[in-house]
Amino acid sequence: MKNNFKIGSHVSISGGLIGAAREAASYNADTFMIYTGAPQNTRRSPIEKLKIEEGHKFMKEHNLSDIVVHAPYIINLASYKEDTYELAVSFLKKEIERTTAIGSDYIVLHPGAYTDKTAEYGIQRIADGLNMVLLPETRPFICLETMAGKGTEIGRSFEELAMIIDKVDLREKIGVCFDTCHTHDSGYDIINNFDNVMEEFDSIIGLDRLKVFHINGSLNIRGAKKDRHANIGADDSNPKGKDMIGFDAIYNIVHSKYAENKILILETPWLDKNTNLYKEEIAMLRGER
For FRET with 53, which of 99, 174, 202, 231 sits at 20 to 30 Å CA-CA? Predict the structure, then answer.
């Protein structure tokens, strides 16, 4: 039986889009996610050096499609510090341009952290920033990510994401990325009551906004608000720790009606600097082993 979702993982852009596509193909993936440069800084290679045309040719030959771009962590649209906020807005504009040039329709964004202010203040700042970068001709969806609730980060509840969206003028340009680790860590019971969680998501945000899933296990119990990813279904023998969500729950999510025709991206840990489990986890979640 053919799966009706596209599954892949985070891959490196260091070799340009062609290098990213080759890495994704080595995992037998259908799709992949990239950062356009290091997620912790603003250094970026010129677009013309990213080997975009070669990458798309390889993708077509190997049935890869629907690239996802992840915005860097340094973007904090909730900040009250003017220099941090100005950097966030200006750099997000550039990331949208790069995402468009790469040929992606999805840019995943951590909403931001309000630090010394309030959640209400941060939500308004995020919406204001999005209103500054979104234009009628903007191609990619800005996919706000569900967050674990660590510190003062916003997006720890469906209500917070909905409040941001409601304040955006071009809200048709806004999507959501549902991260299984983050949502579990923030307190939603995706293990025993995933259908109920998604019904809640639909009533508050709307399933039409759900564009991307980040498929990750969690090292934490539900509600821990820590955001520590685990390999899918890992037991105590895994050097990176045990998955507290578990394979059965993740498999159920991946094969649910909510994942139909969606893009699924793994961000699970590497065991060491040379070993990751993406190929094996993709095969397991497809039901191939």
Answer: 174
